Amino acid sequence: MSSIPFYAKKFVSGINIEEAFATVERLNEKNICVTLDLLGENITEQKQAIKFVEEYDILLKKISEKKLNCYVSIKLTMLGLDIDFDFCYNNLSQIMRVADHYEIRVALDMEGTQYTERTIAIYERAAKEFKYIEIVLQAYLLRTEADIERVLTANGRVRLCKGAYKEPAELALKKMPIIVENYKKLIQKLLTQGQRVCIASHDDDIIEFCMDFIEKNHIPNEKYEFQMLYGMREKTWSRIREKGHNMTVYVPYGVQWQAYYARRLSERKENVFFVLKNLFKS
């Protein structure tokens, strides 16, 4: 039985692979893809990072064995980015060898701005060696337009989100209407020039804008997917899928759920409002 309390269980699928897979199978039955996130970050001991590498290897193998419509997301600080750059890259490489073998995508989640450059550098290096690597970029960062050029030069596989971390005004846009407009500008370039684009947003304005842009520009179905967080707007997932678009749900799991849940709410005051607002939207 899961030890996750009711208030977090809506957003975190469970504490182990079995509980996470039950959620994946339920969503797959609705023709919805899943990206699984094993919770953990800011690891400071090599033994801990190596243990997470082993867990991701097992996760990838089991996804393949079960033939699930599922890929994985991972934070580089879980693999030791706070310890050493090369140590982290070697850990990621071990995971990527398994992922490429089983043809399963691996998305590098983006963390705070102190990690942005190193995360992109690792992605660029990995894209030269591995096929199924992709990265997350955040539309509210001032640097993201230039970073998109780097991603397009690497392999053009990216998830674009608004951005959740609290960042200073010299690094990030602060007003939501401006962030939304920047998102629209950036996503147009990604949809027309990227190899695989994840439209990660719960914003109706962004979703409708992207659907219209995709239709008008005849963007092939295999080049994009919409993406939302587990527990948010489930009826909307189904509506997007029923319209013929690819739909992926970001599903976190793991024993470190409490730190994840608390951090996501505390990073920015807007996150609390975001969760409360979307609890009542379908």
TrEMBL record:
Its cofactor is FAD. It comes from the Bacteria. It catalyses: L-proline + a quinone = (S)-1-pyrroline-5-carboxylate + a quinol + H(+). Pathway: Amino-acid degradation; L-proline degradation into L-glutamate; L-glutamate from L-proline: step 1/2. FAD binds at M110, Q138, K162, G163, A164, S201, H202. It is an enzyme of class 1 (oxidoreductase). GO terms for biological process: L-proline catabolic process to L-glutamate. Pfam families: Pro_dh. Its EC number is 1.5.5.2. Keywords: FAD, Flavoprotein, Nucleotide-binding, Oxidoreductase, Proline metabolism. This is proline dehydrogenase. One of its GO terms (molecular function) is nucleotide binding. Substrate binds at K75, R263, R264. Binds 1 FAD per subunit. InterPro entries: FAD-linked_oxidoreductase-like (IPR029041), PRODH_bac_arc (IPR008219), Proline_DH_dom (IPR002872), Proline_oxidase (IPR015659). Residues 22-275 form the Proline dehydrogenase domain.
